[in-house]
Amino acid sequence: MKNKNLVYVGIAVVAGLFLGYLIFGNGSETKSEPDHDHEAEMVSGQMWTCSMHPQIMQPEPGSCPICGMDLIPADSAGEGLTQNQIKMTDNAVALAGVETVVVGSGSTGEDQVRLSGKVAINQESDAVQSAYFDGRIEQLNINFEGEEVRKGQKLATIYSPQLVSAQQELLTASGMKSSQPQLYTAVRNKLKLWKLSDSQIDQIEASGKVVENFPVYANVSGVVSSIMVEEGDYVKTGMPLVKVANLNSVWAIFDAYESQLSLLKKGQSMEVSTGAYPNENFGATISFVDPLLNNATRTVKVRAELDNKKGLLKPGMFVQGKIDVANKDAMEMLTVPESAVLWTGKRSVVYVKPNPTESVFELREVELGNLMEGNYQVHSGLNSGEEVVAKGTFTVDAAAQLQGKKSMMNPKGEMSMTGHEGHGAMGMKMDFSKAAQQTFDGLLDNYLQLKDALVASDEQRVKQLAETGAKQAKELISKEMDAMGRSHVSQLVGQFDAMAKKHTIEEQRNQFVSLSENMILVGNQIGLMDKKLYVQHCPMAGDNNGANWLSLEKEIRNPYYGDAMLTCGSIVATIN
Predict the structure, then answer these.
(1) Helix, strand, or coil (residue 177)
(2) DSSP code at position 209
């Protein structure tokens, strides 16, 4: 019995150990298994995003908290990219014509500053021919502006009642000059004050006749730059009749940017060239640097004097100036091509290619120095040997905006070019039917006319064209297109309509910023256009954030400032 009990106890112990293993060992396995699966899920890194709002990233599927659309798997190609980076396909890079250059150190020794300007009349040699007595213009011997005159040439004939009376006094006094010589002298001096010569006075006295019409002679030789009277006009003493400019020397007036001022000073020699004489250079010396900065254009006037005895340089002619400057810091300074820089008012940005083997581009803010020979000096933001986008920069920036990433116009990476939430790269391809493309062509023509009306500061014309644009956009939205295209065309309807309701040219121009960005966005997706469009950019528009617009011409005509800053801007891209 005792042995039998020991057997029972042994069996119970073994059974207990086995049950304990099953309960606790299996439970532990069950507990660790979900953790392992969760870990595997986290390692896979699958994230879910919204096709309309790519800034939404969630670790599991569901609905977009902004628009309610079903989330879709995020593109694995975007893994590891920061908000400053964008990845493009090799095909997209080729189609956009993106080219990169390696940042290098600046040249040593002498560098050049280039300035653009116009030929102007040398005001120091500009003479104004005025009337020396009251009278009426009986005859004007100058027929047109630009006519050459010689010193002593008759410019006009004036009838003056004052001179008639003064001559009669002279004839009376000449008969009494022996008895009253002081009176005689006073009368002659009176006529001299009216610029009559001694020979003219002697001739009047000898003839004994009063001359009714007196000639006005040129005091200097030159070219008539302005005629300010016509025959039959009554003039007062001191009133200007004509302006005569001596064009043997002329001025070249240039616009220099703030960043160039430290390199310019009075007395510097420069070389001036013009498109009219491409094989000829003209020597000049800087004679004046304006002490006041133009707040609108952020430029300073720099003036140089040119010898023009051959008469080759005409006032109003465009010229280019080159100034050699000693650049002591050239050995230590990095340079980047002018085309690589996107100006955004207070910020300057470039796109860097971190890995030469991948089409990944990174937005980088830089601090720039002077512009010399088409290259900016780089003070900070880039390192020697880094690769930057030098051609197609605007296209890369536009792609970043479409993907909701940080960009020139979108420093926070939250809003797209059109002013609403950014659209992800997955859903940004727009498909338009042929009928929609043809309708857009008419809308584009209206937009270009509206742009011209803003250049002319014509509020009423802008309002009319905006109303027409809203109608054309509504017609466009009735054509066949995909959901993304319909979304952007709907935005165009609202933007044209909003512009039509603005009452001042400033409000209209502010609205034009978002309208233009949307037109650029849609225009990039539209086919069948027979126009070549230039995307132009003003760095100071849009509250110094910069703004774009479309134009058919290369020449800059700024719609955001009109005459105040008509030529401010640059071409940043083309749409063929």
Answers:
(1) coil
(2) -
